[in-house]
Amino acid sequence: MATIATSIVVSFTKPSSSSLFLTKFTSRIHSVSFPKRYHSTTKLMSHTLARAANLGLTNPTNIETPKISFSATDIDVTEWKGDILAVGVTEKDLTRDSKSKFENLILSNIDSKLDGLLAEASSEEDFSGKVGQSTVLRIKGLRSKRVGLIGLGQSPFTTALFKGFGEAVVAAAKSAQASSVAIVLASSEGLSSQSKLSTAFAIASGAVLGLFEDHRYRELVNSPANVLTPAVLAEEASKVVSSYSDVFTAKILDAEQCKKLKMGSYLGVAAASANPPHFIHLCYKPPSGPVNVKLALVGKGLTFDSGGYNIKTGPGCSIELMKFDMGGSAAVFGAAKALGQIKPLGVEVHFIVAACENMISGTGMRPGDILTASNGKTIEVNNTDAEGRLTLADALVYACNQGVHKIVDLATLTGACVVALGPSIAGVFSPSDELVKEVLEASELSGEKFWRLPLEESYWETMKSGVADMLNTGGRPGGSIAAALFLKQFVDEKVRWLHIDMAGPVWNDKKRTATGFGVATLVEWVLKNASS
């Protein structure tokens, strides 16, 4: 059984008599522990723990974060004593009979204790159960101080929906300054035993993510570039290894070592910065048993991107947010930490990040320069702000040289992908239908959103150079596709490869904070390979 703080027991009981689980908030730092043996409950817990976990930046002020604990309990919801009884309701759950009474059993039971006030108040509040709707009522008649109705919309239920439900519950609890909340679904008849387990986890996951605020830069992506330099990112990665030294080893390469490996593409990007590059390679090997498959997770690690001589300027350039340009590496290291806790068998995983900054100086690469990558291919730099793919080029070559069978890379690579898919969906590119299927199935468990885009080979014409093997960027149309085709030039044909462009979902503009996108799906994908 996996535990967060005290415990999480994922189970369901009859909806007519019991709540989904009990949530309590206190003011201590949470603790995380896993059993050594991986099992299904641990798998379901993995990505929330990774995203909520402290990666240990030392410069920010340490502020105590709240502890959240969950327990499943058999109770009559009308008898539960606490701050808020939160009920997830679909539009169908609000159906009334000829006497304007709720037909749903749980809502009917609650309403009968309140002499019809719940039905009356929900009508007055225009609450129809749509996603995003919520109402919290302080009314007498129950042992709970408040009753909250939170909309779940219409079926079918999804992981993302229940995560959102968990976050909405926490938002209501924060607003009411509540310390305890009982959460119940008004109806769960359509859920199988396995989906009930997944549902409970998704709600718990959403609650955890909704609870934490950015007291300490949260995760790595929120850390400003003057704190999170390439050297500090390497230090953070090394902490994962020291925490799980039974299954992890680390190799951190400096500029001279990268030069010996002929990583001219990566070093060209790093050349302008006063902060030297650090090429980071963590390796996970299972504590026992044979290795059946070798995987690599490659993350873009630009701790700051000025754009170089093609400097980011003008409205919408978001140069002040370019600390999040290492979001791919944060996802990779978040996954590493989770897998260090879970210790899956049968799988070897390499975590690879070419960390550096893209700055401007007399030593920096210029538009028109020609770089030579470690596989010998030459690149004419026609835009210094298309730098992420240059670092990934050498990282992908290095990953292939580790003898892996499959590679997934993650990068905040193109604004074109944000234009195409918006802020919530990542683009997926791969010549392997099988690998796409694996990752999309993992995303169904994680609740993160992906959409496959084509690798249209004819677009490679825009990347051809008259003086080198290729340009580093083509025209504006199909920019994210051209970028993926560029990366493909540095992957061995024998290795199955998938590219994730996460430029949209890495950051939440409304909340002005990082999302932790990618960790969940990476962990689920690795676990899927471990169990196959």
From TrEMBL:
Keyword set, alphabetical order: Aminopeptidase, Hydrolase, Metal-binding, Protease
All residue ranges annotated as the Cytosol aminopeptidase domain in the record: 383-390
SUPFAM superfamilies: Macro domain-like, Zn-dependent exopeptidases
Entry's Gene Ontology BP terms: proteolysis
Reactions this protein catalyses: Release of N-terminal proline from a peptide; Release of an N-terminal amino acid, Xaa-|-Yaa-, in which Xaa is preferably Leu, but may be other amino acids including Pro although not Arg or Lys, and Yaa may be Pro. Amino acid amides and methyl esters are also readily hydrolyzed, but rates on arylamides are exceedingly low
Organism taxonomic ancestry: Eukaryota, Viridiplantae, Streptophyta, Embryophyta, Tracheophyta
GO cellular component, one term: cytoplasm
PROSITE patterns: CYTOSOL_AP
MF terms (GO), sorted A to Z: manganese ion binding; metalloaminopeptidase activity
UniProt subunit comment: Homohexamer (dimer of homotrimers).
Family: Belongs to the peptidase M17 family.
Organism (species): Vicia faba (Broad bean)
Protein name: Cytosol aminopeptidase domain-containing protein
